[in-house]
Sequence to fold (484 residues):
Amino acid sequence: MDFCFFPTGKPRIAAGALAFLTGLVLVPFAAVQSAAQQPATGQQPATGQPPATGQQPAAGQQPAAGGQQTQKNWKDRAEYDLYVKMSQTQDPKARLELLNTWSDKYPQTDYNEQRLIYYVNTYAQLAQTDPTARQNLLQKAQDLLKIDPNNFQAMYFTALWGPAVGGASPSPDVASQVETAANGVLSNIDKAFDPAKKPASVSEADFTKAKGQAQAVAHNAIAWVDSSKKDTAGAEEQYKDSLQANPDQGNISALYAKLLYDDKKFPDALFEYARAAEYAGPGPSLPAPTRQQLTDFFNKAYKDYHGGTDGADQIMSQAKTSALPPPDFKIVSQADLANKEAAETQNRINTDPAFKMWYSIQQGLVGANGDQFFTNNVKDAEIPGGAEGVKDFTGTVISVDPPDHPTKVVLGVTDPATPDATLIFSQPLPASALDKIKVGQKLDFSGVADSYTASPYMLTFKDPSIPGVQTSAPPKTGTHRRRR
Fold:
């Protein structure tokens, strides 16, 4: 199952950052309205004449050369009245109509920057539900940035909506605009979220959270650009930074997971899939059916990678409260387990002659010619029979049947928890034997192999010898064969 969550559609907007930034946008307009040229109280301008000049420059106004300030003027009272009506209109569609009317009637205005700010703010509101507004938003933001290259709102909304406009294969121009804007957001984030600018009605916690959300938007935008350039490493780094800035992004965890998975970074990828599957809010999350699909995918992929389901529940639980895995996070793969077991087996072969012989017999019996190997090398042979100085095999008792007078003892030689040797006795063992034959204890034995099964592997001995245990029936004896 292959999941692709490429962010070409509607972005999951960080509500806190969006609301805060919208509030920032409105600040200059209040200043414009109070400081701009208005008629004196109770005075009406003559028809076709501009309002009377105020005493203070409008917001954002810069002093002219020689210390003189460039004065802004309304073209006439009609322009000012149109501005006032537009600025007081809450509905973004109606406000856009008034902005367009203002642009049509007054293509040249001293308040072009303020008008562009309103355009950006209005299109940003409409972009949430109207895809056609997004391209216009990017264009107005670019126009605004030409006047004010560090306008934070223009950079933020470009970073937020640019990937939706650009899609999976953006034009170089759109990709460049988004990347430049996103880097601008990151460069100006501390200035935009200076604690001195925090509105009194906003708590410090919410202010800090909004800052993190804005940072995350910028990192997501750069990740989108990197992905479009096939720069997987860069995109991975940006998504990680995004989740550090704002952990509440289940959709971004899914994007990050797929990049990691395709890059064969399976442990971290599985953690991020678990995060995307488990996270249900309060931030942007995936729909419940998609999260269930991701849960199913995680379970299958985890089992395929690890070789079992043990540990999967713990990862899902951890991912529910953390957007990123801890620094020491690991999932042992089947290959890692196989390599570890192989190394341990080889070390045991090198240091334990009895196990070396046992392992050699096992490999011969489970091979393609197991029956032939058993007939020619094992059946009716006394093993280990002193070959290579080995007198007994050693296994761990797994079961004793029946418990009081056993006739069958099952051992684990290769693995103390996995049965691979069965000792069958013609007569029940005496009660005294139970002092030595106890579940979980080591037991030495030797004797004649009577039969075997290749899968699951089991080698059965009939009336074997157990040092220190007197059996009722004499041990079965066989021929001595040289072990290969």
Remarks:
- Residues 1-9, 24-67 have pLDDT under 50 and may be disordered.
